[in-house]
């Protein structure tokens, strides 16, 4: 799988083909790296109509999230051999950017992917300074700082993974009143009652967010049918109301719901403290160490 990079442009005056470089994508043999210029994004806020600017921000965030998910996809396999349907193979490959460079001429356009040797973050920095901006970059992607799912996987998991089942698939074998065949949950455990938690990205597409929340509510109902005092946490961040109005309404409904307890992602320690204080144990006991 060859390494390559592609430059992202925003058309300023399409009629005269005037455009502004705004971001850079690179794929190495085991990484997907994407950064955009916050300075240029700020300038575009003054140049573009508000709806176009909001769409641009959302598009950049989606590309950034795809790059992060691709890295997570790769690191999740011990052998380095990824499934054929992984994001790394299909969402960020060279043929995808080749296609986008030819046919996507809307709010964002892409340069034809350029193959490179010895791809690395250091080379990425040099290319970013040359083609995009001289802004200082950090190895950590900005989305990693705000992505609630990634935060849960790193910080919260470290605190509670010995007390809960993590990345657990719940079935009717666990809760007889579960109306769905399976539900994947970030963590689940029990003391006298059941305790579960799910990190939710409230900026994802509405249909996917609705699906996530509906599954979690189905799990809550099944848990409380078996034990009324069961505790359910939803971790997340408030989405920007002007950009994600429907998602913001759903976020607010969850925050005010008595079915579950909303916890701001930056306050994840509240969940860890509850699990520790109440001596929560895994729903399914761990196998003894050999």
Description:
The chain has helices at residues 38-47, 50-75, 87-90, 94-103, 121-131, 142-146, 148-160, 206-226, 245-255, 269-277, and strands at residues 4-13, 18-27, 32-36, 109-110, 114-115, 165-171, 182-190, 194-199, 231-236, 261-264, 281-282. It folds into two domains: 4-138, no CATH class; 147-282, Trna Endonuclease, Chain: A, domain 1 (3-Layer(aba) Sandwich). It is elongated, with a radius of gyration of 22 Å. With 290 residues, it is α+β, with helices and mostly antiparallel strands. Strands 6, 7, 8, 9, 10 and 11 form a six-stranded mixed β-sheet that branches. Strands 1, 2, 3, 4 and 5 form a five-stranded antiparallel β-sheet that branches. A hairpin with a 3-residue loop joins strand 7 (182-190) and strand 8 (194-199). The model is unreliable at 72-90 and 142-146 (pLDDT under 50). The relative contact order is 0.11.
Quick summary:
The chain has helices spanning 38-47, 50-75, 87-90, 94-103, 121-131, 142-146, 148-160, 206-226, 245-255, 269-277; strands at residues 4-13, 18-27, 32-36, 109-110, 114-115, 165-171, 182-190, 194-199, 231-236, 261-264, 281-282. The chain contains 10 helices and 11 strands.
Question: Number of helical segments?
Answer: 10
Strand content: 15-25%
CATH topology of the largest domain: Trna Endonuclease, Chain: A, domain 1
Morphology: elongated
- Please report the first level of CATH classification, the CATH class of the largest domain: Alpha Beta
List low-pLDDT spans: 72-90, 142-146
Helix content: 40-55%
According to DSSP, the number of beta strands is 11
Q: Largest sheet at a glance?
A: 6 strands, mixed
Task: Return the average pLDDT rounded to an integer.
Answer: 81
Level-2 CATH architecture of the largest domain: 3-Layer(aba) Sandwich
Number of domains: 2
Order of helical and strand elements: EEEHHHHEEHHHEEEHEHEHE
Radius of gyration: 22 Å
From the N-terminal CA to the C-terminal CA, the straight-line distance is 38 Å
Structural classification: alpha+beta
């Amino acid at each position: 799988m060859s390494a390559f990079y592609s430059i992202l442009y925003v058309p300023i005056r399409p009629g005269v083909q005037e455009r502004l470089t705004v971001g850079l994508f690179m794929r190495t043999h085991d990484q997907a790296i994407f950064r955009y210029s916050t300075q240029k994004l700020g300038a575009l806020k003054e140049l573009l109509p508000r709806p176009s600017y909001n769409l641009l921000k959302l598009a950049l965030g989606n590309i950034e999230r795809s790059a992060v998910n691709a890295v997570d996809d790769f690191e999740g396999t011990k052998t380095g051999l990824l499934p054929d349907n992984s994001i790394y193979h299909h969402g960020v490959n060279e043929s995808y950017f080749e296609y986008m460079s030819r046919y996507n001429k809307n709010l964002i356009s892409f340069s034809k992917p350029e193959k490179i040797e010895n791809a690395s973050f250091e080379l990425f920095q040099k290319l970013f300074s040359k083609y995009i901006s001289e802004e200082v970059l950090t190895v950590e992607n900005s989305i990693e700082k705000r992505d609630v799912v990634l935060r849960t996987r790193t910080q919260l998991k470290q605190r509670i993974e010995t007390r809960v089942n993590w990345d657990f698939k719940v079935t009717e074998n666990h809760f007889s009143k579960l109306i769905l065949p399976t539900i994947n949950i970030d963590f689940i455990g029990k003391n006298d009652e059941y305790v579960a938690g799910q990190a939710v990205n409230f900026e994802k597409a509405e249909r996917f967010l609705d699906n996530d929340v509906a599954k979690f509510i189905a799990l809550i109902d099944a848990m409380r049918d078996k034990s009324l005092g069961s505790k359910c946490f939803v971790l997340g961040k408030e989405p920007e109301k002007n950009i994600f109005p429907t998602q913001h309404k759903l976020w607010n409904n969850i925050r005010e719901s008595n079915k579950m307890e909303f916890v701001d992602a930056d306050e994840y320690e509240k969940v860890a403290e509850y699990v520790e204080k109440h001596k929560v144990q895994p729903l399914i006991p761990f196998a003894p160490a050999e």
